[in-house]
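Submission sheet (multi-component)
Chains listed below:
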Amino acid sequence: MSDKATTSTGSVGVVGLGSMGSGMAGSLVAAGLDAYGFDVNSAAVDRFVAAGGKSGDLQDLAGRFSCVVLVVLNAPQTEQILFGPSGLAAKLGKGTAIIACATVPPQFAEDMAARCEALDLHYLDAPISGGSVKAAKGQLTIMASGADAAFAAAQPALNAMAERVFNLGPKPGTGSAMKAVNQLLAGVHIAAMAEAMTFGMAHGVDGQQMVDVISQCAGSSWMFENRGPHVVAGDYTPHSAVDIWPKDLGIVLDMARGKKFGAPLTAAALQQFLAASGSGLGAEDDAAVAKVYARNAGLDLPAKA
Amino acid sequence: MSDKATTSTGSVGVVGLGSMGSGMAGSLVAAGLDAYGFDVNSAAVDRFVAAGGKSGDLQDLAGRFSCVVLVVLNAPQTEQILFGPSGLAAKLGKGTAIIACATVPPQFAEDMAARCEALDLHYLDAPISGGSVKAAKGQLTIMASGADAAFAAAQPALNAMAERVFNLGPKPGTGSAMKAVNQLLAGVHIAAMAEAMTFGMAHGVDGQQMVDVISQCAGSSWMFENRGPHVVAGDYTPHSAVDIWPKDLGIVLDMARGKKFGAPLTAAALQQFLAASGSGLGAEDDAAVAKVYARNAGLDLPAKA
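Outcome: structure written.
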């Protein structure tokens, strides 16, 4: 029996059941995989189990996974889970695939892959895009790089979680570099949405009309269409929080500085997110960066109905 | 017979046969309207006539138009054509609709509409979006405001030129304010495309792969999908030139300053377009703003095959 067939039938563990991870774990269950979920937040674990998932002690269960999906916040959490004091890497069976989804610097992904390879583990540098709604539907986009063996062992889980999986080649770090490109654009586009919506409102243009018209024009973006309605509705329930952006645009600008690459729009967008976070909006939906613009312009934004 | 029925069957004149105007005039011909085209560039007129359009002396023909479409560069040209030394406004029949498509400040549109109304002409503040390809197919988006009579007289021409016509209400200026919102976003998104593509290339990400992947991710925009391929192909044939943006983002920032509205992303994008224009790229496709980033980062962009 080939490695691929063996690994295809093993269990899958998801570490991190936040807004993205819970949806991804649910997609594994929906696809009929033997899926286990883990989170420090026991309520999140309970919700997953109530929805048909399994859980238990991560250390005890580690040996049964053909694949582990890490949907944590950042590089330090990824490293802690794999190589911390009770690190998972030492407990996983040889040939296990590790699908690492956090947005991290490319160099970090390369380092992790090398350390995993030394333990005969297959590290897939596999950042995700699409948001929590698509995560819950198994419709994410995954931009992944890693060895063929990593893709083979991860394939059943990737198929269950994603509508599109881009194989960006064998080099860990390429996935994370692509994710950085995406985050640069996504962050700039959210801030641009906020700048444009408040600029229009300051000139008497109706918010809903802006969403309707611009969505059909060359000025549209995925983020404009997705976040613009939040501003119109005055609803800042955090589907994706302001505080994501100081982190992710920080990674982008660190990478840029490393190549002596000037990124003035990214830098300007970061300042707006920092102003949002610094003024107490960090846990709100990232569309709340519009409040920074509104405050500076003496403008009243639409209130929640 | 009602005014609407009378005007619906009249001739339509298009002033300005550039990349947008020639496509729009062609759409009028394709829709079976009696369309005349005018331009200071006689080669553009010849092409329009060879494609089935009519032309002649604008002053002599003015009286037969139920509708005139102005597809010129800016506010001064619009004013010159209507109210200059040989101004068209004095020669048009009462009730003629003027579809004014240039990107102009909202206050200018209000002024023009008032001066037209004094002559019993119907001024429609009707900026366009979609680019030259959609213009040629009659698939533009038109964001228009003006009196009901202006819409009624303009309807046959609007229908022929546009896939979508947004009626933004009776106040001239609202169309132009919406266009300013669109241009803010479009300009920022082009510069962001350039920043992201060159940032990715500086980190070893393949250009075509970026276009393929990001187009399926939350970082996408209309401009990224449209202009990104120009950078990958190294083809800067000007479908829309760099020099559009110092003009249009200048209008946006003048409007912003008038409301004491800070627009840091727009301001940053303008600087990049100014650097492109100042270094001799003004007549190239606006995707050539990527060359500013590449030059600053010591990066070689893809050359044209």
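Remark: Chain A touches chain B through 69 residues (CB under 8 Å).
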